[in-house]
Amino acid sequence: MARIEARSYEPADLAYLRGLAAQASIRRADALPVSEEDAVWSAFIEARHNTRCRLIMIIADGAPAGFVNLTNWGVKEVYQIGYCVDEARQGAGVATQAVAATAAALFKGSECLRLQATVEPENAASIRVLEKAGFQREGVMRLGAKIGERLRDVLLFARLKEDEV
Questions:
Q1: Quick one: DSSP state of residue 20?
Q2: CA angle at residue 29 from 48 to 34, to 5 degrees?
Q3: Taking each helix axis from N to C terminus, what angle separates 94-109 and 124-132, rounded to the nearest 10 degrees?
Q4: Among the listed residues 126, 106, 2, the one whose alpha carbon sits nearest the alpha carbon of residue 64
Q5: What is the rounded CA–CA span in Å between residue 121 and residue 127?
Q6: Are 90 and 128 in contact (CB under 8 A)?
Q7: Are the C-beta atoms of 26 and 32 separated by less than 8 Å?
Q8: Burial 90-118 (b: 16+ CB within 10 A, else e)
């Protein structure tokens, strides 16, 4: 199993994120911009690197392996988590380790009581990541997320600070 670390996004990570965006599984998930325009990428980074949102790089065995995105929409006790792992690292437990460690650190170092995630029903790998990281499926959010140009049904998962993991 890879040794996983996390660190804040740094400007030097932009080239890695652009390469990640070109991967087929990442494009399908609509997790990163598909544009080559610097302004689009600057807006993406700015939107994920402010007081309500944190872009955390996943480092596996010393090299970038993806990212975790934490968002708080104004209720200090509730956060949303998203994650994206390089195709070369998928299936090796990287996402599970990163999500579990991020949840533990967030619960320990903030007022967060609830961490939630949405996932497309057909994304079995991501569902497994969330379940292994201690999240429980709460239900279906009908037309709950815009993916690409369409509103799609998504599954809602959550982990509470009080949950045993």
A1: H
A2: 65
A3: 40
A4: 2
A5: 8
A6: no
A7: yes
A8: beebbbbbbbbbbbeebbeeeebebbbbb
Output the pLDDT for position 146: 83
Model confidence, pTM:
0.89
Residue type at position 90 = Q
Q: What is the pLDDT of residue 29?
A: 61
Residue at 72: amino acid letter: N
| 114: its two tokens | 């609830």
Query: Token pair for residue 108?
Result: 């320990």
Phi, psi of 108 (to 5 degrees): -75, -35
- In whole angstroms, how far apart are CA 85 and each of 56, 60, 68, 108, 159? 12, 10, 9, 24, 20
Dig out the tokens for 137 from the structure.
């499926």
Report the residue count for the chain.
165
Cα–Cα dist 159/121, whole Å: 18
